[in-house]
Design brief:
The protein is of the alpha+beta class. The chain folds into two domains: about 60 residues, Winged helix-like DNA-binding domain superfamily/Winged helix DNA-binding domain (Arc Repressor Mutant, subunit A, Orthogonal Bundle), CATH 1.10.10.10; about 160 residues, Chorismate lyase, CATH 3.40.1410. It is built from eight helices and ten strands. It has a six-stranded antiparallel sheet with strand order 4-5-6-9-8-7. It has a two-stranded antiparallel sheet with strand order 1-2. Strand 8 and strand 9 form a beta hairpin. Helix 1 packs across helix 3 and helix 2 crosses helix 3. The longest helix has 14 residues. It is elongated, with a radius of gyration of 21 Å. The model has no long low-confidence stretch (mean pLDDT about 85). One of its GO terms (molecular function) is DNA binding. This is GntR family transcriptional regulator. Pfam families: GntR, UTRA. Keywords: DNA-binding, Transcription, Transcription regulation.
C-alpha cells in the first residue's frame, strides 16, 4: 500500500528531529515553509504536524509557533537491574516516585484467584506516580498481599518496591510477565498523569512471581504516550 503524503512527511520530520537537524527547543518550520519544501497542501502539512504534537515530538505555543520537545523518557522493558531512577539518571534526568495513596482492601474474586489467597485476605493497594524532571510520565496501581510484605510504608514505596521486597522482606522477584496495550486516558488516569482525557497511553499489566511461582505483585501501569518510549533488548544464543 502506498504511504500517504502526510505520513511520509511526518516520518521525514521525525528523522530530522532524532538526528539533530532540529534540536530540542528549536522553533519548527512554519506550515507555509513546509508546504513549499514538500510541495504539498497546507492540509497535508497540518495533519503531519498535528500528529507530531500528539506523539510528543513538538510543543505548540499560542502565538509563537511549534518547538521541538524534549526527548521522550526511555525505559527498558527487557531484563535489567537498573531501577527507574537509574535509567533516568543515565538520560540526564531526575526521576521521582510519589506515593499517591495506599489502602488495605479485602481480596475478592479475581484477586483471590490471582494471588491464591483466602477470600477477604488483606491486600495492599498502592497508587504511585513517577516523574522525570518533575513532569509526571507514569501512573501505577499495584497490589501486594499483606502476608507477603506487611505494613509497606510511604518511605519504602517512594523507592524501588522490588528492592524493598528483597532487602526488607527477603523476597526476590524471579519472573515478571507483562502485557502491553494501548489505551486512552479516562478521567481518573488523566488526573494522575496530569493530561487531557483521551490522551493515548501505553498500558502495561505486570504479574511478578518469586522462584516458587508465588505471585508477589500485580500491577497496572499507564504511561503518557507523548512523553514515553520503550526499548526492548533481546539476547540470542549462538547456534
Amino acid at each position: 500500500m502506498k504511504k500517504s503524503l502526510h505520513a511520509f512527511i511526518k516520518e521525514e520530520l521525525i528523522d530530522r528531529i532524532k538526528t539533530g537537524v532540529y534540536k530540542v527547543g528549536d522553533q519548527f518550520p512554519t506550515e507555509n515553509e513546509l508546504c513549499k519544501e514538500f510541495n504539498v497542501s497546507r492540509t497535508t502539512v497540518r495533519m503531519a504536524l498535528t500528529q507530531l504534537v500528539q506523539e510528543g515530538y513538538l510543543i505548540r505555543q499560542r502565538g509563537k509557533g511549534s518547538f521541538v520537545a524534549e526527548p521522550k523518557v526511555n525505559q527498558t522493558l527487557s531484563n535489567t537491574d537498573d531501577r527507574f531512577t537509574q535509567q533516568l539518571q543515565a538520560q540526564g534526568r531526575k526521576g521521582k516516585i510519589t506515593l499517591q495513596k495506599i489502602e488495605v482492601v479485602p481480596a475478592k474474586d479475581t484477586q483471590q484467584k490471582r494471588f491464591n489467597i483466602p477470600e477477604n485476605a488483606p491486600i495492599q493497594k498502592i497508587k504511585r506516580t513517577r516523574s522525570a524532571n518533575d513532569e509526571v510520565t507514569q501512573y501505577e496501581v499495584a497490589c501486594v498481599p499483606w502476608d507477603v510484605a506487611p505494613g509497606l510504608t510511604k518511605e519504602q514505596l517512594e523507592n524501588s518496591l522490588y528492592s524493598t521486597l528483597k532487602d526488607t522482606y527477603n523476597i526476590s522477584i524471579h519472573k515478571t510477565t507483562e502485557i502491553v496495550e494501548i489505551t486512552l486516558a479516562d478521567k481518573d488516569i488523566s488526573h494522575y498523569l496530569e493530561c487531557e482525557v483521551g490522551l493515548p497511553c501505553f498500558y502495561i499489566e505486570t504479574v511478578a512471581e518469586d522462584k516458587d511461582g508465588r505471585v508477589i505483585e500485580f500491577s497496572r501501569s499507564y504511561f503518557r504516550g507523548d512523553k514515553t518510549s520503550f526499548r526492548i533488548e533481546r539476547f540470542y544464543q549462538d547456534n
